[in-house]
Amino acid sequence: MVSQTVKSNTTLLQQAIAHHQAGRLRQAEHIYEQIIEVESENANAYNLLGVIAHQEGKNDIAFQLISKSIAKDSNQPSFYNNLGSVLGEQGKLDDAIQSYQRALSINPDYAEAHNNLGVALQEQGKLDDAIQSYRRALSINPDYAKAHNNLAKLKRHTKYDDEIQKMEVLHRKLDITAEQRMHLAFGLGKAFEDLGEHEKSFKFILEGNELKRNTYTYNIFEDMDFFNNLKNVFNGQLFY
Q: CA 167, 170, 172, 175 torsion: positive or negative?
């Protein structure tokens, strides 16, 4: 019976995540709550309810829900990464950094956590450490557009270097998303501004702004990595 309940909740979780990814937050929230009513120890449902709370700016509630998910399953790096994002929004940068570091102690190859750690370090003024974190994220995922943009905005480009060229190659790909292209356009705009190539810089910044306007309605939380982490729900540990 227990196994059948878990299997049923797994199906419900898949349905909820589909709603969540499509921006149908009320439907997703309802199903997450339904899962918890049947299976009170379902850490993933608590985590994703916390994600919704964070998206809605209810960070105190998000903190409570995601903390509860960690109390039920302390081995999921995405939970700590999500908690770090909540703590960062609350201005608790030291705690956010500790949470990202905890995520990385479980999974050192977690590109999103390295990037988010870089953001928190940058906000603390630890710029060299932030640059190292962004570069670590890119060493794990060379196509991580947001990390390219974060690095480009932080460092001062003095030459047409390998990091600019990698952004250009990725920007030319036809199969990247509009959001990825937006981050790359802004990163390239900053890089070429540093190099004094103002016409090229303006072109990329104009493209980035246009893409941001076109995608804003569909992804108003573009600076968060929560949706990237939904895929981590469906790992082997879910089917216990």
A: negative
Q: Which amino acid is at 167?
A: M
Structure tokens belonging to residue 59 = 């960070």
Q: Is residue 190 part of a domain?
A: yes
Domain count, the chain: 1
Give the structural domain span for 195: 143-222
Distance CA 137, CA 134 (A): 5
Alpha carbon distance 112, 136 (integer Å): 10
Q: Would 199 be classed as within a structural domain?
A: yes
pTM given for the model: 0.88
Contact indicator for 86, 50 with CB cutoff of 8 Å: yes
Structural domain includes residue 147:
yes
pLDDT, tens digit (0-9, with 9 covering 90-100), for 110-157: 999 999 999 999 999 999 999 999 999 999 999 999 999 999 999 999
